[in-house]
Design goal:
The chain has nine helices and 23 strands. The protein has about 500 residues and is of the alpha+beta class. The strands form four sheets. Strands 17, 18, 19, 20, 21 and 22 form a six-stranded antiparallel beta sheet that branches. Strands 1-3-4-6-5 form a five-stranded mixed β-barrel. This is Telomeric single stranded DNA binding POT1/Cdc13 domain-containing protein.
Length: about 500
């Protein structure tokens, strides 16, 4: 018996395919958008993508590919790769054409790299048997040549929902082009938290006075919320500038991120996500309709983010928090204005345990929160009743909770550094110093941005910090921070 000849396929340009409603077609296309496979409400998985070619490059053809197993789904490596579909059904949805593929109905695919000069061997395919004739290689070559002169990027200013982290707010849903920095799938509160970054600074969010600390220590509560289970050794791999936005699932099934989470280092497009504020910090929120799509490192949107970040790194003015006054204004004064500013993330991750920094921050809380308790007896006089101690028997011990767009940390005001800070108000038994208490309270209220007309909104201030350790046997684990060389005149 003669061998059966390979089936011959005719491939339809996309401009013609979109006219073939309720028919099955074969076509090649360049992947312009791609979303990770995710479970449907039924038993199948769904992968969606947008493909384009020379005949139909805007808005492109939406392809929905269903399969009973995730291993049967197209797994696109990069936008700009070439995909071939066989026997997909052309439909219309909301007056827009779309292609529906399902291997149970005979659909199949092959994926090839999109760069000129690459070979013609698929890196992913739905079947072990496939054809790749001279005519196929010719189509792939033409698509690669065309795509090389037509950058694949649907994000560069064309999407009205696209935002940067600096523009997020709680009033709307939005899309975000960002880089995955860390994926925490061991979070106690959520099944998974993804930490994303685009090089910009989130705007300061006012603290909600209804979010009161349960233990009476607002600074400790704020500190706990900022950490969100990111260890310092992980944070050391983060960029120095720019807010890292935690992305948490909310009203979304545990596996709706897809069977394969994005990896740290991936650039992605997040679609239809929301935002909320907790403890004065923004959190991205994903819902059932949220989607994660891959982005090629060569995409214009990715290159724009990376280029803008490189400019920030090399510019003293751009290193400043995006939302602080320009030029910087500060009610605090330091003697180290010649030193460059460091972000709190740089402070927390600095490899040398003992070091000095100058920072632009906001003071979010003090502990004790009552000015009356800012001074405590010296160790040698602690046994005496407070009311009988003299002025010289006291020392300032105050913990400040500091924030900038990159981190929060605790820094202590102590001893002579605190006396220098509270210009003109030496440490004393404040319960016997009514005038001093009133003056200190006015200073602290200004520092915390206390207002009679709304929630606190702390101003931006410069201060100097020095790091130290409590145990020389465990310097990293016992590292602490103190304010020094900083004065609060007036």
């Amino acid at each position: 018996m003669a061998n059966r000849e390979p089936e011959k396929y005719n491939y339809t340009p996309l401009a013609d395919a979109v006219m073939c409603l309720e028919q099955k077609v074969n076509f090649y296309g360049v992947v312009a958008e791609y979303e990770q496979p995710k479970p449907t409400r039924g038993r199948d998985y769904l992968c969606t993508m947008t493909v384009i070619d020379m005949s139909y490059n805007s808005p492109g053809l939406r392809v929905l590919y269903f399969a009973p197993d995730v291993d049967m789904m197209p797994r696109v490596k990069d936008l700009g790769d070439v995909i071939r579909f066989h026997r997909v059904q052309m439909k219309s949805h909301a007056d827009a054409p779309q292609a529906i593929g399902n291997p149970k109905k005979g659909s199949s695919f092959v994926l090839l790299r999109g760069c000129e000069g690459d070979d013609y061997v698929p890196y992913h395919k739905s079947h072990s048997n496939f054809t790749m004739e001279a005519s196929d290689r010719n189509i792939v070559g033409l698509l690669r040549m065309w795509a090389s002169s037509h950058p694949i990027d649907t994000l560069a200013g064309t999407n009205k929902y696209m935002k940067q982290i600096k523009d997020v707010n709680v009033d709307s849903y939005f899309d975000l082009c960002c880089k995955i920095l860390f994926v925490n799938d061991q979070s106690a509160e959520h099944s998974v938290i993804i930490y994303v970054w685009d090089g910009t600074d989130a705007s300061p969010a006012c603290l909600n006075p209804l979010e009161q600390s349960e233990n009476g220590d607002p600074g400790q509560d704020l500190w706990s919320s900022k950490e969100l289970a990111v260890p310092v050794d992980v944070m050391r791999g983060f960029p120095a500038l720019g807010t890292v936005l935690p992305l948490v699932p909310f009203g979304m099934p545990e596996d709706d991120f897809g069977p394969q989470l994005p990896l740290a280092g991936d650039w992605v497009k997040l679609r239809n996500i929301g935002c909320r504020v907790r403890k004065g910090l923004y959190e991205g929120v994903t819902y059932h309709g949220s989607k994660i799509g891959i982005l090629s490192p060569s995409a214009q949107a990715v290159q724009n983010c990376e280029r803008a970040y490189e400019e920030r790194l090399t510019s003293e003015a751009l290193r400043l928090p995006h939302w602080c006054p320009k030029p910087p204004q500060s009610m605090l004064v330091t003697g180290y204005d010649h030193c460059k500013l460091s972000t709190l993330r740089e402070v927390l991750t600095y490899p040398q345990v003992t070091y000095k920094f100058r920072c632009m921050v906001r003071v979010m809380a003090t502990w004790p929160s009552d000015v009356l308790d800012f001074c405590v007896p010296h160790d040698g006089s602690a046994a005496q009743p407070k009311d009988h101690l003299e002025q010289g028997d006291f020392v300032y011990v105050v913990r400040l909770t500091l924030e900038d767009p990159t981190a929060r940390l605790h820094a202590f005001l102590y001893g002579q550094d605190a006396v220098e800070f509270f210009v003109g108000y030496p440490a004393a038994n404040l319960r016997r110093q009514g005038d001093t208490v009133g003056a200190l309270k006015r200073k602290v209220d200004r520092l915390l941005g206390v207002s009679e007309h709304g929630p606190p909104n702390p101003p931006w201030v410069t201060c100097c910090l020095k790091s130290y350790y409590l145990d020389k046997e465990h310097p990293q684990e016992t590292r602490r921070y103190r304010v020094f060389g900083t004065r609060f005149p007036g």
